[in-house]
Amino acid sequence: MLSDSDNMKKQLNQSICLWNELLNMANSVTKKNKYCFDANRAVVTKVFSDINETDLFNNDNNFSRQIFFSYLDLLNTYKIQQFLTALSPSTLADTIRESNIYILLFILSTLCSSVLFVDSDISDHDRTIVVPSLLRAGFGKSVIEWLNYPTLTETARRPIVSIVHNLSRHDNGADELNKYGAIEIINQMQQLDNVRQSTMLLINTMALALLSTPNQIKTDPKGIKPILDELLQITIHASTAEKYRYNGFHVSEPLAVLVKLFIDDTTFDYVMNQAETNLPSNLTSTIKLFSDLLISFHVKLIEKNRLEQFTFIVLFNIL
């Protein structure tokens, strides 16, 4: 006889199979039978809601992970991908897919608090391959609207700034964010006391550098010496770290900002000759740092990893 826990697991797995069928039915739903479709969808959604009221997800992390990724896979179907790249919902099937996505995202966001993620779960988190899809879904405009929300707390603002930074690492992302005044909004944030005195200042400056044109950087290079010190320090630490990561940054991230800031001769001179780091750096040690990294990533070119190829190009441009 199955235990209560096993019964709930069985019900949830069955409901995910039913979800898959419901997603495939979107094209066959009409105004006449939509009520039946909605009723069936409500039933499978309630299965999750009822089980979420228990301690199952908190007590069984392996099962929580399995269910989380099963729901996530539902969003990776061809029809959903096709819908997300369309300009706007135009049919009843599109409207149904849109509501399905909202329900699944709610379920996934609810499950997040019960899932212990590991590094291998987010192997692409340093890459920008999904940025174009996010932009087509209107994410660029939305994230700037969130960032500009007047009552946003520092805790809530920090991850949004990181999203802006990651989007701006892609050329299309920078162009899209600038359409909605990203530079002006981030500059306004820079004036807030809680930003000037927090680690958010580093992310803000990195995002600004990637969003700005060379002329904008040349006209506003002042007041960033501590940030330049920190960018070089992150590069130094990441250069010897496993997978070239330090404090949440891949080595390519500070390097991409530095190569953009080096448009300004004063900034270039400061980083190469005067930056204050631990251990102390000078022209010789800084050139050696960049040269050693260039050699390391040149060797990795045969692996055809886009992030490593990008890092090599950035280092080549610096030197």
Helices and strands: which structural class? mainly alpha
Please state roughly what percent of the residues sit in beta strands, choosing from under 5%, 5-15%, 15-25%, 25-35%, 35-45% or over 45%: under 5%
Order of helices and strands: HHHHHHHHHHHHHHHEEHHHH
Mind summarizing the main beta sheet?
A: 2 strands, antiparallel
> Radius of gyration, rounded?
24 Å
- Tally of individual helices: 19
Q: How many discrete structural domains?
A: 3
Q: What would the average pLDDT be, to the nearest integer?
A: 83
Shape: elongated
Report the oligomer.
Answer: single chain
The end-to-end span amounts to 69 Å
Output the strand order for the largest sheet: 1-2
Range of helix content = 55-70%
**Record field, number of beta strands:** 2
